[in-house]
Write a structure and sequence with these properties.
The protein has twelve helices and eleven strands. Strand 1, helix 3 and strand 2 form a beta-alpha-beta unit.
Length: 335
């Protein structure tokens, strides 16, 4: 080979040598994970509740469409029990390769970390992938009470000190903490009656054993439509389309008052950035489809697209808010 030929081949040889130097480099490994080979096998989507409930419906509805966007099967794996602890531990211990995801929600990554000692860290043990959506809470009272708005309810509480009780889906639940937030802001007293789930709490509310509750809108809508309970206000920044005549807490004079039953997607800590972006992009494309909004309206869930960074910030803010309230109201439960 003469000198002229060698000089002509130099750029190609240089590129080959540089490429060889990158083989096995950590950054190259991450870049390779972004290629079209992912996902090359079915994904597992852990839902931290038993099959058949509203949270399960949200997960299955989203996964049905998300699997098409990813061109890969998503297998829904219901792991109820322990208030979401079992599912969270299974997710945190999984390989961070993008093939195990979990439907985190307000209990697993909001209220429970604020009120209990948990065997997982809701921030450090997970990678935020994206928000799915949320449904507001709604203040309701027994329809027999002479109360039509929040102002009248506050007056009723102050005229009947110690005589009004409210139910919740359980100690430390969002229904419990939301009412405690209300009590804190109006500086009044109500007796808390915790139940094992929202259904028995509604039974006693409609029967008059309790007088008020602050449930999620999806659980409350059938009873509102039947006329057995009366809605006074909803959380959130705007009125809900399924309850257009009911004002928000903000409209009713409670500035900054908010609480939401939200659902999102998380994975184990340490997931590659490129895979997280691919999952987030496809999830958000699914959430913007009109037919999904219609499907989720059964659970009064409004889709909410967020980047992984925005969703991570949302989780941290939700935990901080409920932790501050739990400390102020002395709500600390056993794990």
């Amino acid at each position: 080979m003469n000198r002229r030929e060698l000089l002509r081949m130099a750029p190609a040889l240089s590129s080959s040598l540089v490429g060889a130097a990158w083989v096995g480099h950590p950054l190259m490994a991450q870049a390779q994970s972004a290629n079209t080979s992912y996902p090359s096998k079915p994904l597992r989507y852990i839902v931290p509740v038993a099959a058949g409930g509203g949270s399960d419906m949200v997960g299955r509805t989203v996964c049905e469409r998300w699997s098409k966007a990813l061109n890969q099967t998503i297998v829904v794996d219901n792991q109820g029990g322990g208030g979401g602890v079992i599912a969270c531990q299974a997710t945190a211990r999984a390989a961070p390769d993008g093939y195990t995801l979990m439907q985190g929600y307000v209990a697993t990554h909001g209220t429970s970390p604020a009120t209990r000692k948990l065997p997982y860290d809701p921030i450090k043990d997970f990678t935020p992938v994206g928000m799915i959506g949320g449904t507001p809470n709604v203040m309701v009272v027994n329809a027999a009470l002479p109360i039509n708005n929040l102002k009248e309810f506050v007056s009723y509480l102050r005229s009947n000190p110690g005589r009004v009780s409210y139910g919740s889906a359980g100690a430390g639940s969002l229904t419990h903490l939301t009412m405690e937030l209300f009590k804190q802001q109006v500086d009044t007293f109500m007796v808390h009656i915790p139940y094992r789930g929202i259904a028995p709490a509604f039974t006693d509310l409609m029967g008059g054993q309790t007088q008020a509750m602050f449930p999620g809108l999806a659980a409350a809508l059938p009873h509102i439509r039947s006329g057995r309970v009366r809605p006074l206000a909803v959380t959130g920044l705007k009125r809900h389309p399924q309850l257009k005549d009911t004002p928000t807490m903000e409209e009713s004079g409670f500035k900054g008052f908010d609480a939401m039953q939200w659902y999102g997607v998380v994975g184990p800590a340490g997931m590659p950035t490129a895979i997280v972006k691919q999952l987030n992009d496809t999830l958000n494309s699914v959430l913007t489809a009109p037919d999904l909004r219609e499907k989720l309206s059964v659970e009064a869930v409004e889709p909410m697209t967020m980047s992984p960074e925005q969703f991570g910030q949302y989780i941290r803010a939700d935990i901080a808010r409920w932790t501050q309230l739990a400390k102020a109201r002395n709500i600390q439960l056993d794990s």
